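Good morning C.,

I know you're traveling, so I'll keep this short. The sequence:
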Amino acid sequence: MTVAIEIGTRIETGALASNIEPAMLDLEELLSTRLLVQGNSGSGKSHLLRRLLEQSAPWVQQAVIDPEGDFVSLAERFGHLVIDAAEHDEAALAAAGERMRAHRVSVVLNLEGIDAELQMRRAAAFLGGMFEAPRDSWYPVLVVVDEAQLFAPASAGEVSDEARRASLGAMTNLMCRGRKRGLAGVIATQRLAKLAKNVAAEATNFLMGRTFLDIDMARAADLLGMERRQAESFRDLGRGRFLALGPALSRRPITVGIGAVETESRSAGPSLLPLAPAASEQDMRELILTPLPNAAATRARRMPAAPPPDILAQLSLHGVARGARREAELEVLLPVQQTLEDAANDRRRMQSILRAMLADAESGYRPVHVLYQDFLVRCRIDGMGRDVLDIGRFRKALGTARAGIDEADADAPDWQAAERIASALPEDVQGVFLLVARAARDRLPCPSDADIARAYGTHSPSRARRQLLYLEEQDVLVLREDGAGRRILTIVGSGWETLPGDPAAVPA
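The tokens, ready to paste straight into the viewer:
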């Protein structure tokens, strides 16, 4: 079935108003070819995305990655489920991404109010859950990512390498491999130059709005097949007007004026508002400079905060009108009370699964969220369900397994002390600490840069050395060299010390 939605009107130079034709978008073709939207702030990108979402809502399931909370208003009019990412961890969001596909619920992932790194981690977890959904859930989904340069940056920024790798990997999967899984990516960005090229290059439909920087105009002209001298035309586009090209839009570049929308954004543009009549200086001083109330008293008066909503309960309750069958399916997913013997058996099975995963030489260089999804799939295949470990406990178990600690040693008091030290460190370096702690405890040669890099999830020896220096700065270990330039490492407080090891040794 071919479904064409109207996104606005075609604007031809010199054409009479009576000759203006509607600009149509072939929704079925879009699901196969993906869309890139570009335009500076104020060019009308969010309005365009809202028009696209509203017009296509009756025809296709939708998932919106919303960094500013602009699209939560879709819920009241079109029934989208709004998930507040600040209230849920990565494991819950990964499960939600998988389950929203199984139950065909349109979702807005609201990332408003959390910092850039958390936005990247939680968007990556949600997209990863959608991508890893079972084959029988591969229904078509329109995945709209606003401000895509935040999640697929062209260069490293202030966030950690792990968060950037996870987010960029999820966006690459969406745009490069998502089509066969029914995922149709629609990405919008203010700056093409800030968007990773391998993500932008997968789109074959384009809506290019107003832009002023030469580098962005040149890239937009290249994508549309225009000559460089024509690139300056992007400066002349008005708000809400875009140059359109692609198999779902037009075989040649046309100018499109985006139509009206039914819902409103919570973050409307600024408007002028007259100032209130001037108050006296004393009144203004009291309003602006009155001391803050005592913090302790404020906390005492504050009502206890309600517990955060359960994201899985939201999914189970959403769309009750669709029938009791869905509720019964979700109830099957609730964990079952296990005996202590069953828990011990499950632990042995999980450790066996971890060892099998780590037998793959490339596992050390995969992002943790990818390994976590692989682990959950293997656990489900083994009959242990899908909620055996949250991602925090998985990181700890993964670090212990990479360190070569077996089940008996894992419960030893001295190793429990090492794990307590690791738990106080940032998550991305816990595995490195456990690796070197195990070598020191067992009087093994100090791990090489290559071994430490693999535990950190990188191929870079220099980055591995930086992690050791960081751990020394945290006063958890001491580094020194012997006369032959070999590295010796001592764990602070325990007295554990490695044998001398060659930092440049090649792993076996």
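Safe travels,
E.
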